[in-house]
C-alpha cells in the first residue's frame, strides 16, 4: 500500500497524468475541428441537393405536410364512418303502386308509396284521390311490417320496395 501512495505522490506520475490530459485535450480539439468541417460540408451538400435551398428544411417541411395530411385523412375517415352509420337509417328502397280507389274516377290517381331503409323500416303513404276530396294516410313500417292494417296496395308497395334494388 505504501508503494502505491509513493507512486501517486511522485512527480513522474503527475507528469504522466498531465501528459495524458494534454493528449486528450489535443484529441478533443482535433475532433472538434473535424466535426466543424464535416458540419460545413454537410450544409453545402444539403444546399446542392436542394438546388440552392437547404434540403434539410425542405424535408422538415415535407414531413410536416405529410403529418398534416395523415391527420386530415384520419378525420375524413372518421367522418366517413359516421356517415355510413347514418346512411343505414336513410331511405334506400322505394315502392310505388298507382291504383283507382273509386270506380267513378277515371284514372289511377290514387297511390301507395313505401319509403324504407336497409332494415325495411320507414313509412308507407297512401294517397286516395276522389272528385270531392283527396286524403293522404301514413303508416309506420318496422322490419317490413306495420302494426296497422294495410290495404292490398300498401302491402304491394312495401313488397315492391323490399324487392327493389337500393336507389342509392
Describe the structure.
There is one protein chain. With 168 residues, this protein is an alpha+beta fold. Strand 2 and strand 3 form a beta hairpin. Helix content is 55%, strand content 18%. The longest helix has 39 residues. It has 4 helices and 4 strands; from the N terminus they run H-H-H-E-E-E-E-H. Strands 1-2-3-4 form a 4-stranded antiparallel β-sheet, with helices on one face. The protein is rod-shaped.
Could you give a short description of this structure?
With 168 residues, the chain is α+β, with helices and mostly antiparallel strands. It has helices at 2-9, 11-49, 55-87, 152-163; strands at 93-99, 110-116, 122-129, 134-141.
Largest β-sheet summary: 4 strands, antiparallel
The arrangement of helices and strands along the chain is HHHEEEEH
Radius of gyration: 43 Å
Low-confidence stretches: none
Amount of helix: 40-55%
Mean pLDDT: 87
| Silhouette | rod-shaped
Within the largest sheet, what's the order of strands? 1-2-3-4
Oligomer: single chain
List the helices and strands and how they pair.
Layout: H1 2-9, H2 11-49, H3 55-87, E1 93-99, E2 110-116, E3 122-129, E4 134-141, H4 152-163
Antiparallel strand pairs: 1-2, 2-3, 3-4
Amino acid at each position: 500500500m505504501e508503494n502505491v501512495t509513493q507512486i501517486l505522490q511522485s512527480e513522474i506520475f503527475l507528469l504522466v497524468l498531465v501528459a495524458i490530459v494534454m493528449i486528450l485535450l489535443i484529441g478533443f480539439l482535433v475532433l472538434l475541428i473535424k466535426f466543424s468541417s464535416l458540419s460545413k460540408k454537410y450544409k453545402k451538400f444539403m444546399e446542392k441537393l436542394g438546388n440552392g435551398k437547404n434540403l434539410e428544411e425542405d424535408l422538415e417541411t415535407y414531413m410536416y405536410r405529410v403529418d398534416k395530411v395523415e391527420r386530415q385523412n384520419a378525420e375524413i375517415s372518421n367522418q366517413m364512418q359516421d356517415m355510413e352509420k347514418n346512411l343505414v337509417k336513410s331511405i334506400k328502397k322505394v315502392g310505388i303502386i298507382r291504383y283507382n280507389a273509386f270506380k267513378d274516377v277515371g284514372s289511377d290517381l290514387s297511390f301507395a308509396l313505401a319509403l324504407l331503409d336497409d332494415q325495411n323500416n320507414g313509412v308507407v303513404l297512401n294517397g286516395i284521390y276522389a272528385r270531392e276530396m283527396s286524403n293522404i294516410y301514413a303508416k309506420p313500417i318496422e322490419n317490413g311490417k306495420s302494426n296497422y292494417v294495410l290495404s292490398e296496395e300498401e302491402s304491394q308497395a312495401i313488397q315492391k320496395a323490399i324487392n327493389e334494388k337500393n336507389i342509392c
